[in-house]
Amino acid sequence: MAITYFGLKVPFSLLRFASMYSNYYLGINLRGSYVTLVFPRLLMVALSFVNDWSLYRICRSYGLQYQFRLLTLASSYVMLVYATHTFSNSIEMALCSLLLYTVSDCMIHSNTVIYQREFLEEKYRKAQRTVEKVRFYKLKMSLPSHSLNRCVLMATLCVAGVFNRPTFLLFGMPLVFHWLLRGMGTKTVSFADFNLRIMIFVLSAIPSLVLFIVIDSIYYGYLTMAEIERQEIGINNFVVTPVNFIRFNIIAENTAQHGVHPLYTHVLVNVPLLYNVLGVLAIFSLLFMIYRFATNDYTSLPRAQSFVGLMLSAIFFPIISLSLINHQEARFLIPITVPLVLLHAPKLQVGLSSSYPFKVPSRFKDFLYHNLLCPAVSPKYLLKIWYTANVILTLFYGFLHQGGVYQLAEYFSRQVDVRSSNVHIHLVTSHIYSVPQCFVGLPSTETLLVNPDNGQKYRRTKQFFLYEYGSLELEQLYRKLKLLVDVCEMRSISANQRYRLYLAIPSSLSERLNDIFQNRSTAALIKHSQVRVFYPHLSIEAMPQVFGQHPCGINTDVDELDDTCPIYALEDEQNPFSVGRLLKQFSSVAHQFGLILYRIEVRRIK
Q1: In the chain, how many domains are there?
Q2: Could you give the maximum distance between any two Cα atoms of the chain, in Å?
Q3: Coil, strand, or helix at residue 277?
Q4: 292 lies in which domain range?
Q5: Residues 476, 582 within the same domain
Q6: According to the model, what pLDDT value does residue 584 have?
Q7: For site-directed labelling of 427, which of 118, 382, 395, 407 has its Cα 20 to 30 A away?
Q8: 366 and 417 part of one domain
Q9: How far is residue 414's CA from residue 33's CA, in Å, rounded to a whole number?
Q10: Which of 524, 529, 520, 525 lies closest to 556 in space, CA to CA?
Q11: Residue 123: inside a domain
């Protein structure tokens, strides 16, 4: 929570301070729903450049071509969509990129120093004259230290990453191991150096560890300033949030509440979904290395302490580890973006194989190489697939997927401003993501206020109520609505409490909802009327149907459901490809890419 607090809370406090003056002098409100949406994303955009900088510095350190790798990284929809959103995974990716650069830079620095030290020691042993021995000894002693290089920085990055998201352990563990392994097997680095690095690394992590524990304990109320002043501090006043995270997620039943996925989801679904051809190339390259290992072709495998070995472990160790958890989302893997681009992006430009990869030629292998793998053929289709897939996925996840949720929140931010003070607003949602109430602009009901006239303390009463039912079946959703209407009507009669009840669902479910209201109209006295449709919007939980009811001027009042017409009109039965039928078909499908808002009311008996 410390990273989130200092990364978002402090900038928002500065924004609120600036908003007072901009609103007073210029009439510009910097605390509206749009600014609340855009401002943190601008901060995340600035943070995302850490990934570009880390990739650039790694390429410069190892003499790699950085232009095309940076272009590949910038064109990835992972950077355009995920990295610019306020996910803890996006912060995790930036910290992993920094840690990757730190480790890779320490590795090449250690390799250079060790090589120079061994070279000078060899010259020292072979020197015959005392003057030469003194000169080589002085040169050897002037070499910079490397064993504990950037230890404090790495320990701090690791602690920050774990407190931001404890899965950072899986991404940082192979990187830290490579940092500990530097120079092992040479004459100047022994196992004692390995143990010393571990001890110093752990000791270097203690200050930042204590700082994060204290900040989290104060934030969550376990440790208060009054207790600090009275020195009444015990072990129960401290909370270690990563431990609580691990305790909860290590139980399969808890993670199953968010969805259960098979073990292969990350490897076969999420990696290709995030990185398309690069992800497929990475998986096949790993399989090819496993095949070489199984056939005892060890000379073709990368060394454990090499740059390729570092990147491979940074990619596949977290993928394999996270695959053991039953809940697997694509965003969990985005910290592998930089090592994946570093290792495999050049294949988009130079091809899958620069030379004939098979030891024993055959007609099929020759055909495969000349028509699929060779540098003259493969870059053409690889680049087309890469750019096309990323453009489509950027439009889908950046604009279409759940695109109506923000518009819905902005709509209710205006409704809250114009409503009467004695009107409560109830919003029921289903088959959509959670509505961020910060966009609605609601004043806090937890803050204790003071009346300036009489000094009496009070809290604001809650006047906006949100009920989120996930992917609840529409029959059960109808019963929830009926129960909520009954409760609101009772309060309206007993306490004279006015209310407005709304329902927001994907418009692809509007036909089924209309059918339920129509079938229940004889027994229930509630009705629904369309208020507005927010475009574009798509919920994976409620995909549009190509064949269905055509909403030609829908009026969702049950008494007037005849205003809807089927796609297949009688005059179109003989000609399935008539213009009218095709237009109705297109209109029906387009209508389903929206988020529809209904007003739920009691059907008054006339």
Answers
A1: 3
A2: 116
A3: helix
A4: 259-400
A5: yes
A6: 78
A7: 395
A8: no
A9: 10
A10: 529
A11: no
Per the domain annotation, does 89 fall within a domain? no
Q: Which two tokens stand for residue 315?
A: 């990619």
List the structure tokens of 409: 């929140």
Q: Which two tokens stand for residue 189?
A: 């680095």
Q: What is the per-residue burial (b if ≥16 Cβ within 10 Å, else e) of 546-567?
A: eebbbbeebebbbeebeebeeb
Which single residue is written with the structure tokens 């272009």?
71
Helix (H) or strand (E) holding 96: helix 88-126
pLDDT of amino acid 436? 86
**359-395: per-residue pLDDT in tens?**
778 887 777 777 777 777 778 888 999 999 999 999 9
Map tokens 């302490």 to a residue: 305
Helix (H, G, I), strand (E, B) or coil at 33: helix
pLDDT band at 449; cut points 50, 70, 90: confident
Residue carrying the six token digits 């910079």: 144
Q: Check whether residue 323 and residue 415 sit in a common domain.
A: no
How far apart CA 167 and CA 527 sit, in angstroms, is: 47
Q: Rounded to an integer, what distance in angstroms lies between the CA atom of residue 418 and that of residue 321?
A: 51
Centroid of chain to Cα 214: 27
At 429, the pLDDT band (50, 70, 90 cuts) reads very high
- At residue 572, the 3 state secondary structure works out as helix
Question: Is 385 exposed, middle or buried (CB count within 10 Å of its CB: 0-12, 13-18, 19+)?
Answer: middle
Together in a domain, 425 and 281: no
